[in-house]
Amino acid sequence: MQLLGGPQNRIERQTLNFAVATDFLRYIPFTGVNISSTIGSYTVTRIAPAAGFLKRIRCYAYAAGGITEWGIHINGAAALETVSADLPAFTVIEFPFSGAYHFAANDIICISQDPTTAPAACVVELEWYLDQ
């Protein structure tokens, strides 16, 4: 996530692929730092480039995921905020976050997805608000 200066919304696109049908809880595969943490056996995290918050997640699944929960984790904590909705196949679903949980520059962030059934591959769009 590169910064241009001044407050801004940033859109970031990622993909998830549920190769193992029994492994439901996943984390967004950021390009960043891999750490072992209390929030998962092995998570993929990122260093926040500036202070801000997560505004929303949009997800398109290639198979139905059932009720799906997205969460934001900051500095190794359990999900500070979660948003749930039904995730049907071949439909873009928006998961709006409240913006109540802010991160600071250089905080460690990860985003989790926990569906009730494995939705196969997902295209994910994250919308961040960054203060700088």
Structural features:
single chain; 132 residues; mainly beta; Jelly Rolls; 6-stranded antiparallel β-sheet; 4-stranded antiparallel β-sheet; 10 strands
Summarize, please.
Helices cover about 0% and strands about 55% of the residues. By secondary structure, it is an all-beta fold.
Can you put this structure into words, describing what you see?
The chain is built from no helices and 10 strands. With about 130 residues, it is mainly beta. Helices cover about 0% and strands about 55% of the residues. Mean pLDDT is about 80; it is low at about 30-40. The protein has strands at about 10-15, 25, 35, 40-45, 50-60, 65-75, 80-85, 90-95, 110-115, 120-130. Strand 3 (about 35) and strand 4 form a beta hairpin. The strands form 2 sheets. Strands 2, 3, 4, 6, 7 and 9 form a 6-stranded antiparallel sheet that branches. A 4-stranded antiparallel sheet has the order 1-10-5-8, with no helix packed on it. The protein has one domain: Sandwich (Jelly Rolls), CATH 2.60.120.
Residue-averaged pLDDT = 81
Largest sheet: 6 strands, antiparallel
Number of domains: 1
Q: Distance N terminus to C terminus?
A: 12 Å
Q: Which helices and strands appear, and what pairs or packs with what?
A:
Elements: E1 8-17, E2 26-27, E3 33-37, E4 40-47, E5 52-61, E6 66-74, E7 81-87, E8 92-96, E9 108-115, E10 121-130
Antiparallel strand pairs: 1-10, 2-9, 3-4, 4-9, 5-8, 5-10, 6-7, 6-9
